[in-house]
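Need a sequence for this fold. Nothing fancy.
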């Protein structure tokens, strides 16, 4: 898919390209060893890439969502695992930025200034085992105590867990004065006794993302760490975060899939995949990406809408995010180690098995 970029977009794309060139030389090693890319994260901090989405008035680089998506697509061409991991940092920070724009909460502003000033990495997880709708009511509980809450529970898919400076999560305050209330909080994991990350991320793909499970046993969360309180199991409570979470989370995998697309296609050609399967994969990624780019282009003043190849724009308008599962799996679990952007050696054999069935 050919795109036209504005001057500001190109600035962040160029930053990502420089980093991608550096990261490509280490991508295969991180994947083979299942090691977290600490060297890459040091470069993300030093370059300012990690604070691109924070407004300039709060110490960040002021990138729009569209600019970030395009930068992430470029970064993924160097190391897909690093791009996917840092995107979870962007999601947590993006939620804070949206809350700041909407409510001007001093606590949220202070947290964003802290993240920007210290080039801190923020992430965590709201996902829970055996809970399909944690956004409506987390199973993790919060009990009110003097000065804050004591939190107990388990979370899963805590991407970049071992590199976090700030841990983001949610819990249900069961006996809140207005009924069950969901607390969104951010705490420093190293200074929070009872918060532990399990060494349980042993996967076929995305091995270097360190998406470990989290356990909280009597973890103290001070009042100053709570960024948002909302009602549980209500439409109002869900709507309170839907506006923030939908645009923040909807682009998580698409730029990574698009970025790793060239390597996925190259690797698939070396296996048993048919030409039709490869074409379907490439077209599906383009069709799923186009609506996202168009939405955020329309929300970014002066941003140019992506120009898509023949047929893709019409198809993309109807596909949207609902059709992204297959191409994202294809891109994320492909491992052309020679090209430096894959996410799993075993994933290469997965893709060779899946593609013929989708032809």
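Here you go.
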């Amino acid at each position: 898919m050919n795109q036209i970029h504005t001057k500001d977009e190109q600035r962040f794309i160029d930053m990502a390209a420089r980093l991608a060139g550096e990261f490509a030389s280490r991508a295969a090693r991180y994947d083979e060893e299942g090691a977290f890319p600490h060297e890459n994260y040091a470069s993300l901090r030093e370059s300012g890439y990690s604070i691109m989405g924070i407004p300039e008035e709060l110490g960040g680089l002021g990138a729009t969502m569209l600019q970030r998506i395009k930068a992430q697509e470029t970064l993924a061409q160097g190391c897909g695992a690093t791009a996917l991991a840092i995107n979870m940092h962007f999601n947590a920070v993006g939620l804070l930025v949206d809350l700041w724009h909407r409510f001007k909460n001093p606590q949220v502003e202070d947290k964003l200034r802290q993240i920007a000033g210290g080039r801190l990495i923020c992430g965590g997880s709201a996902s829970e085992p055996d809970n399909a709708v944690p956004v409506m009511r987390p199973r993790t509980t919060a009990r009110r105590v003097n000065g804050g809450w004591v939190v107990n529970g388990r979370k899963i898919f805590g991407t970049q867990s071992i590199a976090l400076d700030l841990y983001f999560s949610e819990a249900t305050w069961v006996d809140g004065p207005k009924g069950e209330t969901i607390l969104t909080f951010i705490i420093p994991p190293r200074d929070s006794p009872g918060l532990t990350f399990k060494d349980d991320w042993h996967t076929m793909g995305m091995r270097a993302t360190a998406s470990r499970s989290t356990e909280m046993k009597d973890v103290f969360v001070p009042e100053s760490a709570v960024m948002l309180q909302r009602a549980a199991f209500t439409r109002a409570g869900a709507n309170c975060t839907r506006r923030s979470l939908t645009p923040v989370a909807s682009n998580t995998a698409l730029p990574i899939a698009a970025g790793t697309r060239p390597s996925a296609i190259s690797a698939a050609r070396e296996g048993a995949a048919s030409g039709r399967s490869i074409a379907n994969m490439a077209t599906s990624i383009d069709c799923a990406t186009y609506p996202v780019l168009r939405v955020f282009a329309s929300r970014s003043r002066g941003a140019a809408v992506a120009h898509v190849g023949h047929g893709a724009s019409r198809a993309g308008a109807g596909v949207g995010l609902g059709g992204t599962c297959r191409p994202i799996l294809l891109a994320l679990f492909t491992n052309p180690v020679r090209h430096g952007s894959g996410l799993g050696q075993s994933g290469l054999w997965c893709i060779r098995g899946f593609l013929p069935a989708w032809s």
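For context: Residues 122-234 form a domain with the Butyryl-CoA Dehydrogenase, subunit A; domain 2 fold (CATH 2.40.110.10).
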